[in-house]
Design brief:
The chain has helices at 64-74, 98-113, 120-130, 177-187, 191-210, 214-233, 244-256, 282-293, and strands spanning 5-16, 21-23, 28-29, 33-49, 54-57, 60-61, 82-88, 142-145, 151-154, 161-167, 263-266, 273-278, 296-301, 307-308. By secondary structure, the chain is an alpha+beta fold. The two termini are 17 Å apart. It binds ligand DP6.
Amino acid sequence: MGQTVKVRSPINIALIKYWGKADEKNVLPTTTSLSLTLSDLWTETTISPNERTIFTLNNQPMNADEIQRLNPVLSHFSNTPFSIQTFNNFPTAAGLASSASGVAALTVALDRFFKTGFSFDQLVDITRVGSGSAVRSLVDGFALWHQEGHVSSLPNPFPDWRMLIVVVSKEKKAISSRDAMKITQKTAPSYPSWIQQSDVDLKEMLRAIQEKDPHAVGQIMERNSEALHAVMKDSQPSIIYQQATSLAILAFVKSLRKTIPFLYTTMDAGPNVKILVQAQDVEHVQRLLEQTFSCTVMVSRIGGKADEI
Ligand code: DP6
């Protein structure tokens, strides 16, 4: 411990989704998930020595609940006081995986600040209990978070891809993904078949990446997201993150595909729509979406991982 450290972690967007835990205490997922990081949307965490421990998020003191949620991570490190300043360059808690980049940045920053010497696998174990999807921000390329808990990655053979995020709402979500996935797992009659389909999607996705087939990757990503929202809806009570505008955007993107064939969508635990697009089409598609839906559209390059800056 000693010197101030600053770590930046990109968010990650799952192409094959994680939705449920086989082991809640150790945060082991029911399925293997796969994602890409977005280098232009990130959390930055700075840890400095201090007389008492303080936490801020976007320059505001964090509330007790937010700090409490970090305890499973903090408990692995020294309790010597420090200050932690966290900053997100995107709306917090709007289905943009802020917990993923936040927890990944926190774990790596604590590791560097205290010079712990943890191995990569140990860091994965610690990060996972803070937030499952956070472990996928620890690696570059296609990140695989395996059902058994560990993380591996595959190089991304598609350097000209970008991700658009259509911000339908900046509101905090009504139900957290942590609580919502528990309800789905317990109550959705179709949850067992969702798990089986996820396995099929993953196998086909890995083949598509290996064969460098961008359309197959996009199609599998899209159907995997549709299946996630169907199983959420099948929960009792129904969990619905998609708003009318989200559905209108999905339909609009499908119609645009007649002229711009490489456009594929995915959605998470929020109403925002993520669109995979080629760099050459970004401006045109962004303009059309902004004009049609009067929404902010964020653009990001793909890649990067949680690291000291
Ligand atoms: C819909 O990682 O936020 O974004 O492990 O309980 O913290 P916890 O859940 P979290 O869930 C993310 C769910 C998702 C899909 C995904 O990113 O794979």
